[in-house]
Amino acid sequence: xxxxxxxxxxxxxxxxxxxxxxxxxxxxxxxxxxxxxxxxxxxxxxxxxxxxxxxxxxxxxxxxxxxxxxxxxxxxxxxxxxxxxxxxxxxxxxxxxxxxxxxxxxxxxxxxxxxxxxxxxxxxxxxxxxxxxxxxxxxxxxxxxxxxxxxxxxxxxxxxxxxxxxxxxxxxxxxxxxxxxxxxxxxxxxxxxxxxxxxxxxxxxxxxxxxxxxxxxxxxxxxxxxxxxxxxxxxxxxxxxxxxxxxxxxxxxxxxxxxxxxx
Length: 263
Hints:
Blueprint: E1 10-23, E2 27-29, E3 32-33, E4 37-46, E5 50-51, H1 61-78, E6 86-95, E7 101-102, E8 105-114, H2 117-138, E9 141-150, E10 154-155, H3 157-171, E11 176-178, H4 189-193, E12 198-206, H5 225-242, E13 254-260
Parallel strand pairs: 1-12, 1-13, 2-11
Antiparallel strand pairs: 2-12, 3-10, 4-8, 4-9, 5-7, 6-8
Helix pairs in contact: 1-2, 3-5
């Protein structure tokens, strides 16, 4: 969308993300870093296949994969300052077709989530070192490469203030809740923020009847009253942006609004 010009002439962008941890009628806001960097990790482990009865004649990539996953979960946190957030998760393991055959290859896919760029780089380096070491001890070849990456959502102070003022008009002061810490989730809204200033807030979508399941779960649902509230907040934000008496100076340019979805 950016490549085809969706942000041409846009001076600011606003987004609202559903939040089942908050009740309908509440919004969560935060200035600065809101979400984590997220890098997709791809690992290919190649060994030497063989019969399950004679593992000494093979180089077992499943055993190597098990060691690597355990090392990632155990040693990445130990190598990182306890005040710096890092989350490494392996979400897919693919390898083998028969119960009595050691396969030649196993593939892993996962994510690495960080809040700091230096921590991100250091974590990559540590993963490479762990892969290299386990590859040597298991006599397998372990290759690590990185796929899709989303940067952190960093909310612009002025744009966050715009959303807060609009939300206060719709919900009142008691409807606003400051988010104390960034989320380790990730969000492709960040790509827009690389181009123009903007902000995202989280809107409560849970009620006594609906909306209490976690984001991205198979049971996720919302109380649709939250959509009406979100639309009102975005509309009032756009009106405030265009107010000749207001603090925003880009009246001749567009402001985009978005109901976002996460990664």
